Amino acid sequence: MQVEGLEIRWLGHDTFLISDGKVLITDPFDIKERTKADIVLISHNHYDHCSPEDVKKVSHEGTVVVAPENCKSCLKGLKTVFMRSGDEKVIDDVKIKAVPAYNVEKSRLRFHPKDYGGLGYIVDFLGKKLYFAGDTDLIPEMSGIDVDIAFLPVSGTYVMTAEDAAEATKVMRVKIAIPMHYGSIVGSRRDAERFKELASCKVIILE
């Protein structure tokens, strides 16, 4: 689907293929896609986000994988740039800023504590600014984020609920939000629809 001039496809869970000549893939998991990525973004080292087998499926010899340091052991042998929150890198003319992704709700805190080092990313990709939130709750660092497209988890349990994700669209400046993290490990399309009902910006639910 064309969104803000970019071709964006949801491949399930937190996996998106974003392209306009150059190809960016986020958290590849359970991949059946044959398209190869120029850049792969990994949010953290849980098996459904950092899957070496799936990263290899979407990689060619020039692919650069961007990941937090907690992924070092599972990405051995791959061309990887490791980042910490606050780091900024330019990779193949794409500017990438690492931002925090963590839980604050007590029911979820054991999954992604702040010191665990999970990441989201703000990416300047072919003229558009994207925010890939990773596995996170609604956190103070979201305030003031200014992007064209935000990819936000909505299923609860391990990440924000639909209600929290909608609140995130109110503290950020975002043109379009695309829900993720449902329909596979946890959550359903109803979570995405609930998010769309409550969000303060345009929401596109990808099939």
Automatic annotation (TrEMBL):
Domain Metallo-beta-lactamase residue range list: 12-181
A Pfam family it matches: Lactamase_B_3
Gene3D superfamilies: Ribonuclease Z/Hydroxyacylglutathione hydrolase-like
Keywords for the protein's UniProt record, in alphabetical order: Hydrolase
GO MF, one annotated term: hydrolase activity
UniProt keyword annotation of Ribonucleoprotein present: no
Name of protein: MBL fold metallo-hydrolase
UniProt organism field: Candidatus Methanodesulfokora washburnensis
